[in-house]
Amino acid sequence: MYPRVDPYDQGMLDVGDGQLIHWEVSGNPDGKPAVVFHGGPGSGSNPRWREDFDPDHWKLVLWDQRGSGRSTPRVSDPATSMEHNTTQHLIDDAEKLREHLGIDKWLLIGGSWGSTLILAYAIQHAERVSEIIIPAVTTSRPEEFAWITRGLGMFYPDYFDAFREGVPEEDRDGDLALAYNKLLNSPDEKVREKAAWDWSKWDLSTITGGDNDFTGTRYEDPVERYQLARTVTHYWGNQCFLEPNHVMDNLGRLKGIPGVLIHGRNDFGGPLYTAWEVAKRWPDAELVILNDAGHVIMEGNSMDQAVTAAVEKFR
């Protein structure tokens, strides 16, 4: 809707543990603050978000979570430790960034994994949140991981068999995210490469509703493919370092914060049920159900239009 302007300020913030997170700000330096929590985990920020925000009105912050995008050290390096890469670390990083930029309150926007991180951050720091916009709602409960790594096999039996057979036989009936994470941290480069390929084939198919062709996607780049697979399996294999129903059980803390939840009825990877349950427990949030949408925001699709409308609502 708006031109994709260049950032007027950017930098690397030292957040401790040897971690530097990349951030950038675009739009109006005196405008209403908003921040994007990107998905993945591990995908890095996407400048296309700037097109949803009027640069004359908004002060828009993009940042790369630990180890992703331009933050360092990169998770794409197998030697990079994941010890200090957890949900609580990311929540703390966001707070340090807000303080660094001198922002009192900001609008939070982001989907998929970004949804979980937004809700977890807002539960801890509700006083710093003006509004929330979430396309593709997730809360990272155990049943959500079980669905996306196993339950979806009923819709994609061909892809699921290949996905399951990508791990050792003794691990095939257990936690597949954890099993893949072990392979992705193998000292053998060939083992890591194959695991990243096999995991990504499944991951992409669940996001797109069945298409797992890497051509033209981030998965086409073997470095990006490995980084994303390693980060996602690290988080999913550890239940995103959250208590099983942490987000759902604490949504009452968001009372008074206006929100818009946007979810596609055809989102196979993240069924509508989660968004429905979040909306019931967070009365200040409006749920927008899109009958023709899935998990992905694409230029001009109904999800993209709903996000633009939500941003305009909170001008």
How would you characterize the overall build of this protein?
Pfam families: Abhydrolase_1 (PF00561). Belongs to the peptidase S33 family. This is Proline iminopeptidase. InterPro entries: AB_hydrolase_1, AB_hydrolase_fold, Peptidase_S33, Pro_iminopeptidase. It comes from Lentzea miocenica. There is one protein chain. The chain is α/β, with parallel strands linked by helices. The protein has 2 domains: about 10-140 and about 240-315, Alpha/Beta hydrolase fold, catalytic domain (Rossmann fold); about 145-240, no CATH class. The chain is built from 10 helices and 8 strands. It has helices at about 85-100, 115-125, 140-150, 155-165, 175-185, 190-210, 220-235, 245-250, 270-280, 300-315, and strands at about 10-15, 20-25, 30-35, 60-65, 105-110, 130-135, 260-265, 285-290. An 8-stranded mixed beta sheet has the order 1-2-4-3-5-6-7-8, with helices on both faces. β7, α9 (about 270-280) and β8 form a beta-alpha-beta unit. α1 (about 85-100) packs across α2 (about 115-125), α4 (about 155-165) runs antiparallel to α6 (about 190-210) and α5 packs antiparallel against α6 (about 190-210). The chain is globular, with a radius of gyration of 19 Å. The two termini are about 15 Å apart.
